[in-house]
Amino acid sequence: MNRRALWLFVIFLSIQSHGLAQAQAVWTDEARWTALRAAVEGSYRHGLTPSDYHSADLVRLTHQPGPERDRVANEALGLLVTHLHRGKVNAAHDQQNRPGPADQALILETATSADVARAIDAAAPPQPLYRALVSQLNQLRQIEAKGGWVPIGNGPTLSMGTHGPRVSAIAMRLRLLGDLSSQARDDALFDETLLSAVKTFQRRMGLDPSGQVSSGVINELNRPIAQRIRQLRVNMDRSRALMSHLPSRFLLINIAGYEAYLVDDNQIIWRSKVQVGKPFRQTPQLRSAIDQIVLNPTWTVPPTILKQDIAPAAAKDPGLIAERGLVVTDRMGKVVDPRRIDWTGPLPYRLQQAPGPANAMGRVKFLFANPYSVFVHDTPAKALFAHSSRAVSSGCVRLERPLELADLILAADQKGWTRAQTQLSLDTMTTQTLKLRSPVTILLAYWTVWVDPDGVINFRRDIYGLDDRWAKALDRHNP
Length: 479
Hints:
Strand 4 (about 260-265) and strand 5 form a beta hairpin. The protein has 17 helices and 16 strands. The protein starts with a helix and ends with a helix. The chain has helices at about 5-15, 20-25, 30-40, 55-60, 65-85, 105-110, 115-120, 130-145, 165-175, 190-205, 215-220, 225-245, 305-315, 320-325, 400-415, 420-425, 465-475; strands at about 90, 95, 250-255, 260-265, 265-275, 285-295, 300, 325-330, 350-355, 365-370, 375, 390-395, 395-400, 430-445, 450, 455-460. The chain is globular and about 80 Å long. Helix 1 (about 5-15) packs across helix 5 (about 65-85) and helix 1 (about 5-15) crosses helix 6. By secondary structure, it is an alpha+beta fold. An 8-stranded mixed barrel has the order 3-4-5-13-11-10-6-14.
């Protein structure tokens, strides 16, 4: 059985398992048929393409009830519910997700719902983080329908006190984007009001909020509206891929945004800057659950870092091993003098760093199951948090405010836990592993577009170069 036949069979079983008579009646009810057609057309609101869900066939078969209509409707419903629930793109295989056995219950529930339209919409993530993207997509498309915008000309950097037509063009653009109020003013003058709007725009783009309009700011202002819409659609699909059935409390790491958020009941209760993997050692996108918190962790050097970073440096100067506080042991656990090792040859050794402020893990790390051996942790490299671009790690996520996060998680998980207990444990300089009674869901998301708690849309550079591939898969029609 080929792949398409398999997922059609899954949809068939999902609908038919409810009972033959009821399954046949699903699409003979004209109101339900109309609701399905409307939902397919409405997939456009979610950044999807209605033709992927047989929109033309649904129109053609409107007045032709029978087996073909039922088949097309069931196929359209199964695909649409699956894509709303867990994204269209399967990034691991660079193809679209197909309905599988795990989707059967949701497809059945939707197909037999008293309100089909509402049930289909409910398949998409309900969280404000996602629903705000739907609203922003509509706003950008309204701008596009009115002609979008024309490029602003290049020229010298503009700042407070500047006057002229390029200042007017910038003011008009920022007003269109919502960064500048519509209050009457002299648009040709770069005054304090425009300065504030420029800084707001710079923050939304992840730029240094200097208030000066350099060529970099002009480049961001001139991004074509179609490109912004494409970028937004990609990130809506990425959101769907991670956010299905999210609990009310979860930790979100936005890799491209260099930020972390602890969300509880749709409210952000903690946030922090983060450092993430370099482009050639990318932090992976995944969903898991933090089940352990380690205070005063040791650090065992991963094989990749040993081979690519530490060994070449030690070959030049073996003294660096001791300087970094690393202890080398062989397979029998015996300590080995780093000066007696050939660092250019095979390395059957374990390198470990003792707990302490200088430890690469800092004072705390958060563990969660994943196939990449990555985790979230503290870092002694605090100065790097001052940089706007923070893709500097070897794949793990470094937190600027890790102890606050540990306190929040432990206080909710272990009755009576206080900040003082955390500090007492840290003061012992002894490694302590705390197993959580209720693991905390964690998302490592790669979002180059998101909407912040104030309803403001943010765009970021595609630091790993992943958007284009996702966009092509999202727009690919796979019948």
